[in-house]
Design goal:
This protein has 291 residues and is of the alpha+beta class. It is built from eleven helices and nine strands. InterPro entries: AraC-bd, AraC_XylS_family_regulators, Cupin_HpaA-like_N, Homeodomain-like_sf, HTH_AraC, RmlC-like_jellyroll, RmlC_Cupin_sf, Tscrpt_reg_AraC-type_HTH.
């Protein structure tokens, strides 16, 4: 069997590292029309999709039998899930792509939002008022993404939160909405990410995570590789580096303190690792981003 291709946006090879606040909005037709409406199954390791379908119909293709949808509809596709699409010729709407790190940050700081599902999920938009509100949030978000006005980032996040709030209310009205079957490896990876979120600042090693998950190293490695991650330790390292970058940018902690706050013991090793993955030293990163 051929391996499932892994892309950044569909058809684009993945970069070494996804920007932690990556957000991209385009029309569904822009991405699907050149492919005659059919996007073959693939995956994104760190990117999540929200499709807002306002006209037409289609089907999510994946590891199961596929999920059908008819406009108006919201389709949620989490990172790491195998998915493709078969769209009708008259398809219309938008697809919003969000970095997992950005979504994790949003969910971590707002308890009233439900986390992204573990498998593709479809939500019918069953009233015109909700559809209009969703379209307004999408239009405002698109405008903010296209220009650089004062308070640009604040406005982007405000509109993103408004859209997620509408989807949250919609999902509560459709508690039994159809979703794809969740493979065991995706459940294991989700549990691993939760443990990483709780413990990455400490001195946990891989054995500690395996004990908490009651899993073997081959099982966890397989789950990570199936979702496009190279290894469990890469997942942990990526989370620690994201936190290190945030501390360097948004705090006055020294580089040594940032090192210890993100679970590293040796500042020299931390600096070498940071340069290898980010392309510059922690001090250079802080200086270049703040100027």
């Amino acid at each position: 069997m051929s391996p499932i291709p892994r892309f950044y946006l569909f058809g684009e090879p993945p970069p070494r590292e996804v920007d932690e606040h990556f957000l991209h909005l385009e029309t569904i037709a822009d991405r699907s029309a050149p492919l005659q409406g059919r996007i073959r199954p693939h995956m994104h390791g760190d990117l999540n999709h929200v499709l807002i379908v306002t006209r037409g119909h289609g089907r999510v293709l994946g590891e199961g039998d596929g999920l059908a949808f008819t406009a108006p509809h919201i389709v949620l596709v989490p990172a790491g899930s195998v998915h493709g699409f078969d769209f009708s010729d008259d398809i219309s709407g938008h697809v919003l792509t969000i970095a997992s790190a950005y979504l994790d940050e949003v969910f971590r700081t707002r308890d009233d939002l439900t986390r992204q599902p573990l498998a593709p999920l479809t939500l019918p938009v069953d009233d015109h008022k909700t559809l209009r509100e969703i379209q307004r949030w999408v239009a405002r978000l698109g405008r903010e993404l296209r220009w650089q006005a004062p308070a640009h980032r604040v406005a982007i996040e405000a509109n993103l939160l408004g859209l997620l709030a509408e989807i949250e209310r919609l999902s509560h009205r459709h508690g039994d909405a159809p979703s794809a079957a969740i493979p065991p490896h995706q459940r294991l990876l989700a549990r691993f990410r939760e443990q990483v979120e709780r413990n990455f600042r400490g001195n946990w090693v891989l054995d500690d995570y395996l004990k908490a998950l009651r899993a073997t190293e081959p099982q966890l490695r397989y789950a990570c590789q199936k979702a496009g991650e190279s290894s469990p330790m890469q997942v942990l390292l990526y989370r620690r580096l994201i936190e290190a970058k945030r501390l360097l940018l948004y705090s006055d902690l020294t580089v040594t303190d940032c090192c210890h706050q993100t679970g590293f013991d040796d500042p020299a090793y931390f600096s070498r690792l940071f340069r290898r993955h980010v392309g510059q030293s922690p001090r250079e990163f802080r200086l270049n981003r703040r100027t």
